[in-house]
Amino acid sequence: MGTFVTIHVVGPGSDQEPDAHARTLREQAAERALAWFDRVEECCTRFDAGSELMQLAAQVGVPVLVSTLLFEAVQFALAVAEESGGAFDPTVGRSMEARGFNREYRSGRPIHTSVDCDRAVSYRDVLLDPDCKTITLLRPLVPDLGSVAKGLAVDLAARELSSFENFAINAGGDLYLGGSNPEGEPWSIGIRHPRKDAYLIDLLHVSNRAVCTSGDYEKRSADGGHHILNPRTGTSVDGVASVTVVAPSAMLADALATAAFVLGPAEGIRLFDRLGVNGLIFSTSESTVGSSTNCGAAESPSLTRYATQAMHEYI
């Protein structure tokens, strides 16, 4: 996925003798958790013509039977697209490619898909059949699950580690913090300033929640644009420098961070309030920081269901 993944499982306190068997169990669980990142990438990447996602892209106008993993990821992406009015759209793969975000991270080689896309495609051109677990692409398009797949992998890894209660997963800005840190307190997460190195704009104390940040500083194209595109224009979004979301799952937090980035501060905060998640939006002018602390709001039943369904059905 082009990032480093670290897993920290909290063991016995320093005043206790380490238990070799318990340590082995933690290490084995961590290996299984890390394996989910490979599994999700193999299924959901657009940088490999052999991936299940790109095999789907090669078949237009016909129902394609797909794995539960891919079906749930696409179903969730479409639910976020609908909820955000298209600000989030998983059909922007060709636009991403045209902007230069088409290099396979391991080899550095550019990837050129052979799909002849219509520029006017949108998430409405993807049809799901929940009973048959099929996906139909109504028009030629290149799916992009970049704002869903990593969060899904984090959630699957967290589920793998859930019996240990206290653990942390960090996948390049997508985090899940289970239970407590080694000091027995909620995990402390600093949100980096998008314009000033070594500065923080906030410090969060989190337990059993995901924290995901999207920033315009993460990936840049040759023309100076960044990787978060407005699906309607195919160009980089202006006005927002970073978005951080705290939510029950990393897949939900990851996707909503992208959606709010496109919507902008005012509409983005309204999205957070409507869905009952906490978020912080930092504008490019550095003059406004929007935040939502509406912890008591009811979470969106559909998005919460879609965000957890993959784990319940797949593991």
Instruction: Classify the secondary structure makeup into a structural class.
Output: alpha+beta
Average residue pLDDT: 83
CATH homologous superfamily of the domain at 175-300 - what is it? ApbE-like domains
User: How much strand content do the residues show?
Assistant: 15-25%
What kind of assembly state do the chains in view correspond to?
Answer: single chain
Count of DSSP-assigned helices: 8
What is the first-to-last residue Cα distance?
21 Å
The helicity comes to: 25-40%
- Which sequence of strands runs across the widest sheet? 1-5-6-9-12-13-14
Return the CATH topology of the domain at 175-300.
T-fold
**Which residue ranges are poorly predicted, with pLDDT under 50 across at least 5 consecutive positions?**
294-299
Your description of this structure?
The protein is α+β, with helices and mostly antiparallel strands and 315 residues long. Helix content is 33%, strand content 21%. It has a seven-stranded antiparallel sheet with strand order 1-5-6-9-12-13-14, with helices on one face. Helix 3 (68-83) packs antiparallel against helix 8, helix 5 (149-161) runs antiparallel to helix 6 and helix 6 (250-263) runs antiparallel to helix 7.
